[in-house]
Amino acid sequence: MSLRIVVTVKYVPDATGDRHFADDLTVDRDDVDGLLSELDEYAVEQALQIAEGADDAEVTVLTVGPEDAKDALRKALSMGADKAIHVEDDDLHGTDIIGTSLVLAKAIEKAGYDLVISGMASTDGTAGVVPALLAERLGVPQVTLLSEVSVEDGTVKGRRDGDTASEQLEASLPAVVSVTDQSGEARYPSFKGIMAAKKKPVESWDLSDLEIEAEEVGLEGAYTAVDTAAERPARTAGTIVKDEGEGGKQLAEFLASQKFI
Amino acid sequence: MAEVLVYVDHVDGAVRKPTLELLTLARRIGEPVAVALGSGAENTAAALAEHGAVKVLTHDAAEYADYLVVPKVDALQAAYEAVSPAAVLVPSSAEGKEIAARLAVRIGSGIITDAVDLEAGDEGPVATQSVFAASFTTKSRVIKGTPVITVKPNSAAVEAAPAAGAVEALSVSFSEKATGTKVTARTPRESTGRPELTEAAIVVSGGRGVNGAENFAIIEALADSLGAAVGASRAAVDAGWYPHTNQVGQTGKSVSPQLYIASGISGAIQHRAGMQTSKTIVAINKDAEAPIFDLVDYGVVGDLFEVVPQLTEEVKARKG
Ligand SMILES: Cc1cc2nc3c(=O)[nH]c(=O)nc-3n(C[C@H](O)[C@H](O)[C@H](O)COP(=O)(O)OP(=O)(O)OC[C@H]3O[C@@H](n4cnc5c(N)ncnc54)[C@H](O)[C@@H]3O)c2cc1C
Ligand SMILES: Cc1cc2nc3c(=O)[nH]c(=O)nc-3n(C[C@H](O)[C@H](O)[C@H](O)COP(=O)(O)OP(=O)(O)OC[C@H]3O[C@@H](n4cnc5c(N)ncnc54)[C@H](O)[C@@H]3O)c2cc1C
Questions:
Q1: pLDDT at A76 (0 to 100)
Q2: Rounded to two decimals, what is the model's pTM?
Q3: Whose CA is nearest to atom 31 of ligand 2?
Q4: Which end of chain A lies in a sparser environment, N or C, as judged by fewer CB atoms within 10 Å?
């Protein structure tokens, strides 16, 4: 029996670049290079490992994003995924969390799946809720924020390290999983992988392929509105001293002056 | 006055501080009605009433502990239907965000995650978010449905405001999906006796410069002299020197204490994402060019093995 794995991957502005907002208060994608959200590399890695351990499995990577988002798909394909789906439509500009989860869920259903694997959070929006929303919309179990994951005999098991406890989770497939950056280092694409990726199929779907109306998504369909975005004022330059034997004492003096001691 | 649902984060009836902060914020937009679920739910009532809850809706069932997230969504939805609130506020823990998000789709509402402040506006609550590793501050609103907003710890000072806090039993019928994800084992985290990292007024963190698990003792000693929580960079965590639960940053905890002391941490963007909103920032680093110094109110360029123990002694001496 074949195992169909869909990995959701997001194309995001490089966090080490100078990220900011465009005039319509959406993310400015022209000014900063984009890449596959680093936290989604962990999702691709776990998908590949699960596929390698299965008799017959196929890994499809899925992104919702503009033209350039193909770069994120290529990276995932070069790591070893089998095929890719790109949902692209001008009307998607400005889609919020609710809209994004709708588009992803419809695309996952159309693709067909036994297991969905997502990252723990994107590195731009960082909400960390899309996987739970996919489970809600698809009507399947969520097995999220796993630092360890395995799939066997139609059951997914994993460890979720929470604030107050560490939990062992278990659910039957189909299910939605999300993995943390503790789940295991992601592999680097090999030269062979990069060359092979060029030949792998990338399907493009638009909103009509998913039977979604334009007014359900994008800025127009958004459930949230951003009214203002202001750059945080630069911190006023602090006092910096060089330790010449009294650094700890000087620091204590500062802390006392600020009433911390 | 409009009612505002506040989801209660508690451990066996002990209400965690972010929920008390939420009650303070909730009072700006309406009358807080608290929802407390699971073992010890009724024991939360006194603390919640003390901080402004006019009503406390409680429910306990084995499902809350035995299955992941969905039973709590079912219950919060039941509370939502019973109350018809003007907004739903949930603490921004990993689980809190998942509960809030699933509720939002079910009730046809938008969601704002990780708010750091909340005000009443002409068109409903206005949430402040601190985004792109805290380099931008945005103000947003939910414009469809009932606003569902998750709020980060340390977003408001806790204020007492005694209210009735009448306990009412919430009636919940679990959905078919509630039992989809089994929790087959649970290992509670051992308490260190130190304050909770996300709630602490002072956080003392160590990074790669600490150079070994055993050396974290000097970070802990400084933390203990100040009554602080201990944090760590991902480099220190990945090296196995300190538990992952103490990691500060994008994929760790985000902290916003009165005072953050970074020792042997360079200040990478992903680390800054978790601590840049701290009120006062102090760093000790032997490299004068380390990016962390761009953030500091006070920095010492020096060897942490000299500076930190000297600071600890001095703090102890001054505290007598
Ligand atoms: C700074 C900032 C703040 C925002 N705040 C809000 C807000 O409060 N409310 C709101 O409704 N929207 C918000 N948005 C928009 C929101 O981030 C996007 O709609 C986004 O696509 C979904 O949320 P996320 O990126 O936070 O995803 P997360 O929930 O953090 O992502 C988790 C996982 O979901 C998958 N995923 C997410 N997006 C995609 C995608 N487009 N394609 C494929 N896989 C994906 C990935 O596997 C990812 O690892 C914000 C955006 C930004 C940049
Ligand atoms: C997707 C993603 C998510 C990430 N999430 C996080 C996160 O949540 N948290 C996080 O912290 N990082 C995170 N990182 C990693 C981050 O990019 C940095 O690698 C990490 O923060 C570096 O940790 P560090 O500052 O301890 O180490 P380094 O960058 O190696 O810095 C060590 C510092 O210690 C100083 N030093 C050395 N010896 C001494 C001494 N004796 N006395 C004084 N100073 C000394 C050095 O000068 C140096 O500045 C993430 C990365 C990615 C890609």
A1: 98
A2: 0.97
A3: B266
A4: N
